[in-house]
Amino acid sequence: MRLRLALLAAVTLALTGCATAPKIDATPPRALVPELFFKGRSLAIGEFVNTIDGSRRGLTAIIDGSFDGQTLTLVEYFTFSDGEKDKKTWRLTKTGPTTYVGTREDVVGDAQGRLDGPFFRLTYGADVKAKGSVYTLTFDDVLALQSDGSVLNRAVVSKWGLKVGEVTLKISPRSAKALQPLHAPRP
User: Fold this and answer.
1) Are 134 and 140 in contact (CB under 8 A)?
2) Cβ of 25: how many Cβ atoms within 10 Å?
3) What class is the 2-175 domain?
4) Residues 87/76, Cβ–Cβ less than 8 Å
5) Looking only at Cα atoms, what is the longest distance across the chain?
6) SS3 28
7) What is the rounded distance in angstroms from the CA atom of residue 86 to the CA atom of residue 80?
8) Strand (E) or helix (H) holding 137
9) pTM score
10) Contact 62, 182 (CB under 8 A)
């Protein structure tokens, strides 16, 4: 009986906070307005950390953004540290003053976005390919404008409520000319 209670307590503690939304260390200088920040071209540099085995995978993305008054479209050209390349397109539709609904090729159902004070939060499930299999993972992203004009994006990645990874990206607005050497793949 005592062993069962100890095991139950250990599992409960392990699960508590396993997949909680990531925290941003400081209060941003002002609120992030996604449709303003992502208009034009930006550069994202960061990494995915697998919290199960400790492995890391670097990534760089060129993001081309446009806003038609209701929908923010983000075309993302990814290059990963292992040489893999990918392209994804977000369509985030503004549904209210602080709410968004989004889709992307690998997103299961709809992504839910919301402005939360100075932060933009985006939660969604996505089918992720890994080691020859496809896994549906949950992403809880928090984006915050930084004092240098960049955006810090931190995401907790989970499966069945258990944290399996973290993504950290620094996104900087850049001119198309400044990003030319990265030669993003084009459709």
Assistant:
1) no
2) 7
3) mainly beta
4) yes
5) 67
6) coil
7) 8
8) strand 133-145
9) 0.79
10) yes
Pair of tokens at residue 24: 């941003």
Q: Which residue has the tokens 């993003």?
A: 184
Residue 105, phi-psi category: left (phi > 0), alpha (psi -120 to 50), beta (remainder): alpha
Tokens 């968004």 appear where?
100
Convert the pLDDT of each residue in 147-180 to its tens digit. 899 999 999 999 999 999 999 999 999 754 555 5
Burial string for 174-186 (b: 16+ CB within 10 Å, else e) reads: beeeebeeeebee
Report how far residue 17's alpha carbon sits from residue 161's, in angstroms, rounded to the nearest whole number: 9
Confidence of residue 130 (pLDDT cuts 50, 70, 90): confident
Domain boundary assignment for the chain: 2-175
In whole angstroms, what is the distance from residue 91 CA to residue 102 CA? Answer: 5
Task: Give the whole-angstrom CA distance, residue 145 versus residue 34.
Answer: 10
User: What pLDDT digit, counting tens, does each position of 82-107 carry?
Assistant: 999 999 999 999 999 999 999 999 99
Six token digits for residue 79: 């290059």
Contact by Cβ (8 Å): 102, 122: yes
